[in-house]
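User: Structure please.
Assistant: Input sequence and predicted structure:
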Amino acid sequence: MPTLAAIFLSLLLIVANSVAQTHLPYAKADISERQAATHLLERFAFGSRPGEVDQVVGMGVDVWFEKQLSGNLSGSELDTRLSPFQSLGMSAREIVDTYPRYGIVRSQAYREGAISRDDSTMDKSELRKKIRAFAKEKGYRPHSKLTNELLAQKLIRAVYSENQLVEVLTDFWFNHFNVSIKDNQARAWVMSYERDAIRPHVLGRFRELLGATAKHPAMLFYLDNAQSTAPNKPLSKNAKRRTRIRRQAKENRGQMEMAAPSPKKRSKRGINENYARELLELHTLGVEGGYTQKDVVEVARAFTGWTVYQERFRKQMNRRPRAFVREGEFLFRAGAHDAEEKFILGRKFPAGGGIGEGERVLDIVAQHPSTARHLSYKLAVRFVSDNPPESLVERLTQTFLKTDGDIRTLIHTIAYSPEFWEAAKQRTKTKTPFELAVSALRALKADVKNPRPTLQWIARMGQPLYACQPPTGYPDYAEAWINAGTLLNRMNFGMSLASGRIRGVGVNLPTVKQRPQSESVNTVLEICATRLMPERDLSETLEQLAPIIQTQPTNTFKRKASKKQKDNAVAQMVGVVLGSPEFQRH
């Protein structure tokens, strides 16, 4: 039997190993704790605020990272800044009903007699005035206000949230499961899509995230699955009767129908493959994931009947409750589902599987090795390098498969990988326009009272938020963002922000202390650059920027120089730093 001393020694070794595994391995890459704190804030947050590196070092980089992984830090400042956004407190259905699109309000105004066919000849501004009055009477709010709140809340969260990792991952996963406000049907649902389908699951299991996006109206409309039905599905007697009634009513309306805005043409009945294709190609398996066109068709068949609840289904649901499954705004219609046998990714789906077929497809693709690799590669690109090492991708793939796609564990694996810390020495990742703007606002401890002008700058730099039309989302590699035109816009943004020319944003420029001797222009430039880009070797950057700021008089920072002169000079230097190639990287 082992002696008590041997048992005690074994316990000590276990504890020691456990402790060793809880420390981020930055020292092995010859990186200091302050440099490690900076790297964490650049990759798992949207950059550091003044003094934040000191705070992270003070609590310990491991503690900071674990707190970010928890995703439940409180923040009263964020709550205060988000409080004016009324749509954030509404249910998905309330948002859609409260902020209808202009075309929908106009059609309703025609139907209810608030405007008539005679109004179609009046001045457009007068017609819009009548429609706005009708909308106000109904309690509707402008749809543009919803869009403004959607964009503003994203910027405000990214700048002020203490849960920075949650914000970074929300941005990542929204882009992965992209929907666009350019799609008329999806637009009103995008606010609740990010809030309800993306944000709650960014540190959970991938399968939960996948299922939440698949059933949300924004995705169902955006990729057209809401209208996907079994091919040649015979119309019921009631449906035939309704069709005859609609046809007769249309004939009776005659010329009045022409005066009213024409409704959107109904899509052809049958299977729509859009969601099935993007589910396999983008959301899960990847382009080289091992599926065929036949699999796409079969997956599309499995998702027929997955649609969005509408009031017109209520009577049918009351008569035949077993033919429907409702979960919030998601609705499964058995009558629109292809109930025949299917073969998907080599597996047999017996006839009559109902809603369970779509769920089973999501189970299969969420656990598939191709999905594990596809997502591991994308995460490695986002957090480590545009060309991530194969060793890291393989390690993440195995982690994904062992943990059933636990995202929190995947992020943990990245942070504890040697590849992540080697990347800290290179800083080859290029910030997207959104990341650039947010990191600049955080670096200057900005007070964003009106987000709209900054959002316009982000769009001007090439990334209008929530407006990427292809389902691929915005790219995450340097070549997509850096060219002569975009670099000029980025530099102009930096100069405008630092000089106070972006309305609604107040910034805190670095303080230059008075000294008995005059402060040289180059010294002040170094102070500004060090504050905006802490713990970096800035010798090459300062050498490149020095000629740009030599236009400043050499005596600018003498004791007798005015405060306005000094502030203007510092603003110019800050703008130059924000527009520099070094600040574009993280």
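Residues 292 and 345 are 8 Å apart (CA to CA).
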